[in-house]
Design goal:
Strand order of the largest sheet: 5-2-1-6-7-9-10
Distance between the termini: 55 Å
Shape: elongated
Helix content: 25-40%
Strand content: 25-35%
């Protein structure tokens, strides 16, 4: 098949690389425009563009790289029509496709979505699966329609979410699923054996887009919820709080239930507000939450590198009774 691949972040690279090695022909790659990155503000290409350039250099193939500001623009739609793909494969592209594109290829547009649909439609299903305390996640290959992640399900593969799973580790697991699953779906499409399954819309949940502000810790929440938020937003955008007027990123923590707190030297009878430091020892800082306590074991002071709490407390003084905000 003649394939146009649409994708932008690291998650999409694994699928792209799998397609490049297959018997199919990737004739074009569509990705987001280059953007400024880091403190320097230097313009950098998205990971999928970097992968496409590498593939062109390694194979000598003639692969067009397109970076439309708007996928709904008529000039882009016209260019895509001239390419004449048999199928468009989409993996975390980052723009909504108009009907003119969805209906263009013989086999339509096929999406690689990192959740078990209809659960966690939307922009951040991987992180939200960890944050919500889901026991399993997976990848759904879906026939795209005009809705957001509402199309018919073509193939699903599941995996367990481990107790120490982070957003980053789950991304790596699921990214490896996409390519082989797409190839399996393309084989079935050619053989006429695909059996699309309509989603049960009444069962859907939504994973909203992440912003840096999503990582601000509300210590009024239960300790278990905060711990999942910390893991789910690792490595981006990360979670944070403030103390002594400065930001403090929190990278690792574990939950101390109320019934176990006394064994950690915490006075559970003492009335303190959520966000108050209940104890600070060599290995962790224990903070009161809306339900239970959170023991912080890895953090990052503003302008510094990530470090264990032990190293942090050798250079920064945090005392019982101080307040995280």
């Amino acid at each position: 098949m003649r394939i146009v691949f649409m994708g932008t972040p690291d998650f999409a690279v694994e699928t792209f690389n799998c397609l490049i090695k297959s018997r199919h022909e990737v004739v074009a790659v569509v990705t987001q425009p280059d953007k400024p990155k880091g403190r320097s503000g230097k313009t950098s290409p998205p990971p999928v563009k970097e992968a496409a350039i590498k593939a062109i250099n390694n194979t000598g193939r003639d692969i067009k790289i397109l970076q439309p500001v708007k996928a709904a623009g008529q000039d882009f739609i016209y260019e895509l029509k001239n390419i004449n793909p048999d199928v468009i494969i989409v993996a975390a592209f980052g723009q909504i496709l108009p009907e003119d594109i969805l209906s263009m290829p013989k086999y339509g547009c096929i999406n690689v979505h990192a959740s078990i649909l209809p659960k966690l439609r939307g922009a951040a299903p991987v992180q939200q699966a960890v944050i919500s305390g889901e026991k399993e996640s997976g990848v759904t290959i879906m026939q795209m329609d005009a809705g957001i992640d509402t199309g018919d399900i073509l193939l699903v593969k599941k995996c367990a979410i481990e107790p120490d799973e982070t957003g980053g580790s789950l991304f790596e697991k699921l990214a490896a699923f996409g390519g082989p699953m797409v190839l399996e779906v393309l084989d079935m499409a050619e053989q006429g054996t695909l059996k699309p399954v309509k989603q049960d819309g009444s069962m859907h949940t939504y994973a909203r887009m992440l912003k840096k502000e999503t990582g601000h810790i509300d210590f009024n929440a239960p300790a278990e919820e905060i711990e999942r938020l910390i893991r789910g937003l690792d490595p981006w955008p990360g979670t944070y709080t403030h103390i002594h007027g400065k930001m403090l990123k929190i990278w690792k923590a574990y939950v101390i239930p109320v019934n176990e707190a006394a064994g950690k030297g915490i006075d559970t009878e003492e009335e303190i507000s959520a966000g108050t430091v209940a104890a600070a020892s060599k290995n962790n800082i224990i903070v009161k939450t809306g339900n239970g306590y959170l023991a912080i074991t890895s953090l990052q002071p503003e302008g510094k590198k990530r470090m264990d709490t032990d190293a942090f407390l050798r250079g920064y003084k945090i005392e019982k009774g101080e307040q995280f905000e």
